[in-house]
Amino acid sequence: MFESTVLYSILAVAVTVVICFLISTLLPGIERKYIHARIQQRIGPPVTSPGIMAPIKFLYKKNIKPSSPVPGLYKILPIVCFLVVLCLLIALTPYAFAIPALASLVAVVGLLKVEEICYVLMGALSKSIMSVRMPFPDRVKGAAHLNTTRSFIEDISARRSLRMITYGSFPMYLALFAPVTQARSIFLQDIVAYQQAHGPFLFTVAGGIAAIVFFIGYMIILNEYPFSIIKAKCDVIEGPYMEYASKYRSIVFITRGFLMFTLGVLFSVLFIGIPPTIFSPTILINIFVVLVFVFMMGIFSAFTPVFTNRQLLPTIIGATLLGILAIVLGLL
Amino acid sequence: MGIKSFSRARAIHVMLVYTGGCNGCDIEIVNSILSPRFDAEQYKVFLTWNPREADVLVVTGPVTHLNRKPLEAIYEAIPEPKLVVAAGSCALMGGVYKNIHGDIPSEEIEGPVENIIPVAAKVPGCAVRPQDVLAGVVTLLPTLLDAD
Amino acid sequence: MEEKVPRSNIIETEIPLGTVHPAALEPYRVRLFVEDEIVQEAEITIGVNHRGIERIMEGLPVEKGNALTEKICGICSNSHVWNSCRTAEIGLDIEIPERARYIRVIMGELERLHSHFLYLAHGCETVAHETFSMRVFYLREIVMELLAMIGGNRVQYGCPIIGGVRPRCDLDEAKLLRLKTDMDKIEEGLTGFADRFLADSILISRITGVGVLPTKQAIRLAVTGPTLRATGVARDLRTTMYEYDDFDFNVVTQPDGDVKSNLLMRVLESFESIKIIRQAIANIPEGKVVNRDWEMFDTDMIESYIEVPRGTLYHSYYLESGRIRHCIIRTPSMANIAAMQYACIGDHITDAQLSIVQCDPCFTCTDRAIEIIRR
């Protein structure tokens, strides 16, 4: 009996993850075609192009040895990122509730942290052609400061992701812990059970505020404009991803859509109390929440410029204070 | 049509390298991709600034002396299969800067682009029209799709 | 505000950007010397585009030389031909028909519109506001089509020739009507954009106080054009040019010299350009467009200064049996490079490219042999 339950659970998780993954590949296309292009009054790319066709195309490109001091590690990092997101999604399915170590907020936070640390490593290990290595005679007689240390643009990006780890992701983690104040437990199972008994946390005052904070944190974690300082086009071009080519770039592309989906599901688990499972029609609510998040993010990013520290700090401090307010309200 | 060709036809990443010249072609090309009037993205052509991501390298300008090595380096950085579109009369034959001397060679101009990297398609015009650039990238499609 | 000085003593690292970079459409190398992401000094290396135009022009027949000046720059191509023809006209005492003068002004102002729109779009693109950038590009397309209608090409129009304008660039009733209706369209679109732009508090807070160029420093660095006017100095060569005698327009200035002032400066100046074009359409006289009745003779050095979209443009040459000798061209960006290097001091790296873009660089124009004479 026990074996069959385990087998059934594994099968259910696998099917759910595959379905979620397939839907997640559409998300970048939806954002680009239906939101950005619509706002910019143009036709835009086909929905399948950015999220599905581009990764498949990259799979068929020949790989090049990335210009990096540790090419092996650099190549592994996107795979680690993908596996982290995969684990996160598995942790959110109701079948994982049987493993308390995985299906708890501590695990969720830990997995997201791994993701962020990967960005730092990627940035530190990438040495692209676009800055220092560009063959240009700029250190010549008469040039200023010939003896300074030279820094790649990805190094700036790595330093910025480090900064994002220290304070940028506060709003996200505060919002994650807001539901705990109601359910009095860090296990997803209890949070879901509490909300199914007492109604969604989203529709309380504390929940509403925490949802706003979660949205800001969502955009920061996804490095979308305006918070995309680690891959701002106007200085660091693509930041940590500069050197990925062929299948590694394809994984980078896929991971982004998958992370968008997973964070949306995380919201629906923590704030509405609906874990994703393919054997229940409630998965439609999960998908709906994901789409709402993608739409909101698309609209927000289409109308904002990239922030520098001058705007970023107040925004993050504001969001953090809101998050604390939500937690305090929840505790009262 | 296999999945390889199918996917390649639906996502073409274009990188633009500008190697001297008068800036006119360059602005027309960026314009053709950024302006909602032409909107290259509807033809599945995406602009990128990272050589590792690019499939098609659009080169404009006559390749001045200081631009030769950066151009070669960027071409090297693009993973196979890659194709080069030379856009504008400067990229095609050195333009007025190379040819106005008659037979006396110019020391400033290393171009045309063909002398430095293999060129797959040539888009004439001074300056190129956005429509022509899009047509040039699209004519490359059969070559790009069949490459391994 | 105090003058900005580079603080070389606290530089930690150097970040070189270019020659290919998304925020800089043209090839140039900029080395940013930073202390914890704050730029303390910047060095811009040009010369990447050097094609030796003056060297090529040496000894060319003056008509051919004029055509070649158009290839100096793809943005202000008309201004270069205009000023080159003007130089010859000054030297050879050629009278230009009234109608040709009006058409030259219309072309000049249309070019100012397209250059300013390009600036706005590029500025918005550099702060990563893709939506605004696209909206400006959409407006710019109207101007580009007008230019193509008059000149026959979208970038190199070849409109002025010695003695007037090329006969194919003559404006008939239908073209004037289209100019008139399109001016209304542009004005409407630009007004809408400006309102939306100023109402966007996120964007305004992002660009206010970034890349400030103090007035005193701007004057000391001999900055020209809209970049100077955005620091509060009302200096516009158009007020002294005889071509603009019949036109009524204001010299727009902005107080702060930061990115916001610069962007607004371009918007407001575009409205003035629209005003000038409307006056030209209303009052355009009948008659010939080109005066072929002139003779070539040898001259001393001829100099001509005009106001182009980016500032003051200088052309000079000698004429010797119909050929150009010792041509010197000084473009506005030449003077503004120093401003770019100073404007980004004290700003974040993300704003450094923006501070360079705000001075409206055109390094293709600028790349030529430079001799710095210290006095």
TrEMBL record, chain B:
Keyword line: 4Fe-4S, Iron, Iron-sulfur, Metal-binding
Keyword Transcription on entry: no
Residues covered by the NADH:ubiquinone oxidoreductase-like 20kDa subunit domain: 22-139
Pfam families for the chain: Oxidored_q6
Cofactor(s) annotated in UniProt: [4Fe-4S] cluster
Highest taxon, organism lineage: Archaea
GO molecular function: 4 iron, 4 sulfur cluster binding; metal ion binding
Family stated for the protein in its record: Belongs to the complex I 20 kDa subunit family.
The protein, known as: NADH:ubiquinone oxidoreductase-like 20kDa subunit domain-containing protein
Organism: Methanobrevibacter millerae
